[in-house]
Here is the input.
Amino acid sequence: MYKNDPTCFENTFSFPYSRELNMYYCGKRILSPNHSYGPEVRRHFLVVYIKEGQATLLSHKDKIRLVGGNLFVMFPNEEIHYVVDKNSLWTISWVGLYGNMVYDLFESVGITPENPVKSVKNIGHALSSIFEGIYQLSFSMEHHDKLSVISLLYQFFSVLISDNGAKTSIDYVEEAARLIDYNYDKNITVENIAERLFINKSYLSRLFKSKKGITPKEYLIKKRLDRAADLLINSTVSVNTIAISVGLSDPLYFSRIFKKHTGLSPSQYRQSEAKQKNL
Here is the structure.
């Protein structure tokens, strides 16, 4: 509970093992009178579900009305200022989020810094339950309860995206790039990636080339060779081991493709970089 404010409750949260999606704190206001927020800028995402009340968001070019059944998001480094209407009681829940995937998840349902408010009346009951579960579990120091909080954060986005329905679309290029980024060290091909995304290989290649300037095959090769170069410079493991470590099980093929793109064999590249370090 906030000092001198019996209508406001907040708790901090710390769990170091989830970098993709995590939370700094959570809280709720229950029937708060004469409330306002900001102007303020935060370094993380502050997500607010409005259960009851009316307010005006003042930090954008156009004033935006906030009402019960709205979800609005304060993005990092964006100034936020809202004022609740006179005689309107303000009941909200919030979470302070961070993580590598948060922006993309909000963007997938059309929530952006330019469009930070979304009506979620159809899923209001589900969101209320999720936010309350997060708040209650946030007080526990048990490892399994902290994992349950992270699980509820994923559930929040699952419900939000499900409600968005057909309006959500997959960015095939970025999804393909992510698959390569996390799996280049395995025996994957562009065909595998296209099958994983349920699209035609040629169509994926055209999309990828149009957006990235290179084909997905070239992107995969570059990812592998960049990692191989790093291992050649910063480790003493054998060329054969490096080949396997970047998803190329045939050392001869690895050496041939490495020389084709760098002008040097892996061994020559390692020697050349070692000489440069010693100059």
